[in-house]
Amino acid sequence: MPVEETMWDLSVTPELERRGIEAMRAALAVMIARRLPPEKRLRRVVTWCADGGGLFRPHAATRRYAVAYEVEFAV
Fold this sequence. Notes:
The chain has about 80 residues and is α+β, with helices and mostly antiparallel strands. It has one domain (about 5-75). It has helices at about 15-20, 20-35, and strands at about 5-10, 40-50, 65-75. It has a three-stranded antiparallel β-sheet with strand order 1-3-2. The longest helix is centred in the middle third of the chain and has 15 residues, at about 20-35.
């Protein structure tokens, strides 16, 4: 059974932002999968929000994202 979670403060460069939606989704999936504990497996990235919906201030080199994703628990 999938569970939706949100990860905050994922840094993304402007270069990655310009590569398109699918490249962005794939990069965010890699970042999230690296941070998940072993008992969770990433199913998919659902959506993301630049600057955490106004929680973070933008920087010149990177933007910080809040990302919603689905996981399932490992058996």
